[in-house]
Amino acid sequence: MKQNRDILRHHHLTLNVGVAQEDYDFHTKVLGLKSVKKTALYDGDEPILHLYYGNGNGDPSTLITCFPMRQSGRKARRGTGQIGAVAVSVLPTSIPFWKGWLQKHGFAAKETERFGEKLLAFAHPCGIPYEIVGAATDARTPYSNGAVPTEHGIRGTHGITVSVRDLECSDEFMHYGWNGQARREEREFVRFEVGKGGSGTIVDFKVEPNVPQGSWQYGEGVPHHCAFEVDTLDVQKHTKAHLEGLGYTDVSDVKDRGYFDSVYVRTPGGALFEATVSKPTGFLIDEPFEKLGHAMQIPPVFANRKDELIAHLERVHD
Ligand SMILES: [Fe+2]
User: What is the distance in A from the centroid of ligand 1 to the CA of 40?
Assistant: First the structure.
C-alpha cells in the first residue's frame, strides 16, 4: 500500500469550550494569542460563535479556534475515541516563566516530561487538558500581546493527544493515510510526526483501554477536531481519493469555511481530522489586517440572518 505524503503540519486545532468571554480572556490574556477572527460556525441551523486565535497573521499551525457552547447548554464527555489534550509550543527556557504566569492567573500547572520535552500540564477553564511544551527547535514567530514578553510567546500548536482504547487501526491510518513519520513509543504514548516533523506536526496517541468513549458532537468541554495543512486544492483532492482508496470512505466533500477549504475524515481511532487549504486572501477576506479579530464577521451562509445572529450570540470584549 502506498503512503500519502500530502499532510504537512497542523493548520488549526478546534475546541468546544464554555463561556465565550472566559475563553477569549484565557487565549488572549493568559496565553497571549491574538484574536484573528470572530465569526460563527458554518454548519447547522443553530448559530454558534466561532473565535479564532493565533499569531499576528493567523498563520497555519498557530491557530486555535473555539466554539463557546455554554449558551446552547450542550455539554460533552471527555473520553477515548477523541482528542484528549492539546499542546502549544514555547522555547524550553520559557517554561519557568509560564509556570509562574499561569499560577499568577489562577492555573495550577504540573511540570512533567514526554518524549524528552519538558511540559506544563494544566486545564482550560472549561476543563480541556492543555499543555505548554518547551520545544528546542521552532522557527515560528510568536505574537506579543504586550503582557507576555515576545521571547516567551507561544510559537504555535505543538501537538494533540488522541485517546484510544487500542492502537492498531490508528497506527495503520497514520502510516498509510496521514503521512505519519518518526513513530516512537514511551509508556502508554505513541508519537507520530507528520510532514517534516517537529513542533506543530505532532500526533500522540494515548492508549487507555478502560476509558469509555468520549463525545463527537458539539458540546462544552472537549476538543472537536484537528486540521492539518495541505498545499493546494488539487493535493486536497488527492488526499481524499487516497483515503477513499484505502477504504476510509467517510471522507467529507470539500467544505468552504470562508478562510480556507476543508475536507474531514473520521479516523479509525475516533478523532476527527481535517485536511485544509488556506484561501489566498485568508483572514483578510472580510476585514483589513489592522482590524483583524475585532468585529463580528457573519458567515455568508447566515447572511440573511445577520441581525438575529448579532442579537443572539454572546459578545466578547478586549
Ligand atoms: Fe476546522
Answer: 12
